[in-house]
Design brief:
This protein has about 140 residues and is of the alpha+beta class. Helices cover about 25% and strands about 35% of the residues.
Length: about 140
Amino acid sequence: MGGFHTRWVVADEMPVEATDLDDDGRPGAAAVERWIEAACDAYLTRCPTLTQVLDRSGGVLRRELGIPQLHDWPDHPATVIVSAGVNEVWASAFRIAVRIRGCEAVIDATCIVSVAPAGGGDPVELGREVVDELIALEHAARHVN
């Protein structure tokens, strides 16, 4: 069987607790958000140039999670594999794609990351160095999920 295999920079196994599932056996929004945040955190720790932009600008990291509506979750796995990788970059933001996979189910989500000035206002431009860092991370991606 053929197909596309996406490579991911980050892939971590995370436990699924009974409290993570709703009455219908689907992952609850709080669990999905926690898994997405953990994957984004793991990705962002690999971005020291972005940290330098934060430090220089005195800004704060802004994240906008895109959590899909949860549908059937046919299995009740003990763990999920949560992966992350950047799939789009703009001048002042980038999108981290996140995939959460149980045995037979997949949840795809996003997180838009930008640097906001401390006093508010439009996001700071990331600059070529951050873009190059993100590209290098994606080229080095080795996980499949």
